[in-house]
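Dear colleague,

Thank you for sharing your sequence with our group. We've completed the structure prediction you requested, and as agreed, I am returning the results in plain text so they can be pasted directly into your records. Please verify that the sequence below matches your submission; if there's any discrepancy, let me know and we will rerun it promptly.
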Amino acid sequence: MSSGTTNLGVVFIHGLFSSEKTWDTFAGLIESDEELASVTVTRFAYASPKLRRFRPDRRTPDYNDLAERLKTFLHFEASEYDRLVLVAHSQGGLIVQRYLARMLNDGQGEALTKIQGVVLFACPNDGSDFVRPLRNAWWRSNPQVRALAPLDSEVKDAQRTVLRQVVEAPEVGPAMCPIPFWVFGGIEDNVVVRASAQGVFPRVFMLPGDHFSIIEPDSHKAPAYLALRERLLDTEPSPSSFPQFSGAGVMRG
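Please find the predicted structure tokens below.
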């Protein structure tokens, strides 16, 4: 690894009904990889309760709440890193996109330059029909579950912003910031099928595994780990290199 990748933080973002512990396997592999010795793992945790809450003083945060929490986390708790790679599973990828869209809509594109890449594992970019009647019956009041419906308007609005002002962005500005996205789906995933994993993005790479095992690599040679490892080793050395990521070149690999 080149010396330019010093002080690189990898922020792991979990999915629906999950927690930061979902990344234990990935974190352990990174921390035991000598070539990634200068990479620091950190995890973004948020409330995603599976059971219904019967307390009137509490509510389940929606994607806008979580996007703002991610903004706060990156600003304060990840401030020590010169460069960041955001790695998200499932719903976590939608939170990342909502965060980016809100930042750009607020004219804060230049504040995003330390983000050197976004990696999405099994993100429902076009929603999920998996056990949808059950979801609607049991979690109808959960805003996180509702947003997983295909063609959710707020999810699609955020994705259009990300496509135009991140993936296809020609330069850094108040309303745009080129950041490479790498999108991965699982060949056995029936929760987020290939078309949904790809969504608006130019390309999706398929990996072995289902919706959950895709982020549980069992060794340094597992395809999912090798995919992320390559992205980390390939991260550009400084934010000043971002203008090279034109709309035609956002997917590398």
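Summary note from our side: Helices lie at 24-31, 63-77, 91-105, 132-138, 143-146, 153-167, 194-198, 223-233.

Kind regards,
the structure core
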